[in-house]
Amino acid sequence: MGGGHARDDTEQRTLRVPRVRGRGAARAGRFLRADTAVAVGLGRRLVQNRLVRLVAVTSVIFAATIAALVWRRALAERRVTRDASAGRLHHAADAGRIAMLQELARIRATLRDVVDAPPGVRSAKLAELAGNDPERTAMVLEDQRVTLFPARVLRYVPDPSSGDSIDDPRAGALLRAAREDVMTGQPARALVAYNELARMHGVSVRRDPASLIARYERLPLLPRLSRSAEAVALVHDLESGTWTLSRSTYESYRDELDYFVPGDRDIPLWEEAVHAVRAASQTTADRGGEVVIWVDESHPVLLMWQSRGPAAVALAVTGRYVADRWLRAPPGFGYGIERVDRQAFLPYPPRDPHTERPLSFAGHEWRMITFAWP
Predict the structure, then answer these.
(1) pLDDT tens for each residue of 323-332
(2) Could you give the CA distance from residue 56 to residue 226 in angstroms, rounded to a whole number?
(3) Given this structure, which CATH class describes domain 160-267?
(4) How far apart are CA 102 and CA 205, in angstroms?
(5) Computed from CA positions of residues 47, 52, 57, 58, in that sequence, does the dihedral angle turn out positive or negative?
(6) In angstroms, how far is CA 214 from the centroid of its own chain?
(7) Is the pLDDT of residue 201 over 70?
(8) What is the SS3 assignment for 343?
(9) Which residues of 323-351 are buried (b: 16+ CB within 10 A; e: fewer)?
(10) How many CB atoms lie within 10 A of CB 46?
(11) Phi and psi at residue 314, in whole multiples of 5°?
(12) Is 10 a residue whose pLDDT tops 60?
């Protein structure tokens, strides 16, 4: 019995050992499976991270490549656009220069034909040449006569004809009497003499119109309201060319009337044009010529003339007319013309891009600047 129990215990101990070992193996298996799962998970994450990095790097490289291609295309398009703009600029410059030279040649030829034509034909051709533009005037100067096409008012002329008025001894006597009455304190008697003298049209005193002298000198003798109205009327008549005056006479009376009627004056474009043509045609041996004048320092006028004997025919155009009707800049471009000393016939704003072309007319060398508006 004792031996049997000992054997049973031994068997039980023998059987328990494998049971203990089975549990450890299971636990170890579980640990092994867990470690394996962790390793697999880590491997998958590592692969995923590598894939993410690879995709990110590839995306960045692709985006950079696309951006570089787009930038290069933009640069190429900008270069093409710039080259095209430069081409249009140079084309506009060449076209403007050709247009200017063609117009100058055409006007010279027309004036040569006109000056040799009979008077009636001459007037018709000049009227056609001038058209009806406020920036363009043709003219005939013969002896002391001046005729403009289209007809314009001249406030003064180079040589006032003595035939327009005559020195009247009676007018001179009335003027002396009126002035003496003023000096002796008899304004009423002086005003009567001035009123009579103011009604004497076509009469002059020492080459100045008697009516103009009387109307001006009686102003201080008039009542205030009448004085103001008469001063306004006198300025109107002076500006309307009522009298044929010299430049010095016009400017003298106009300066004095500024005291009674202050205000801006119209620019004497055509008066100064006539003066310049008269002076140039009389002082040069050439039968024709050109000159640019600046009226009031800021209004350029191009004058072109031909002369034959005592007669001279001419065309005067403003700088604005040349720009608008001769050059006609294409859209997006503008023109300027200036002498080498920077005296501008066509002012222009300093602007880039621009290009220059040489011009020669009116006795000077010029630069024609073509620029692009922004």
Answers:
(1) 999 999 999 9
(2) 96
(3) mainly alpha
(4) 50
(5) positive
(6) 45
(7) yes
(8) coil
(9) beebbebeeebbbbbbeeeeebbbebeee
(10) 10
(11) -155, 160
(12) no
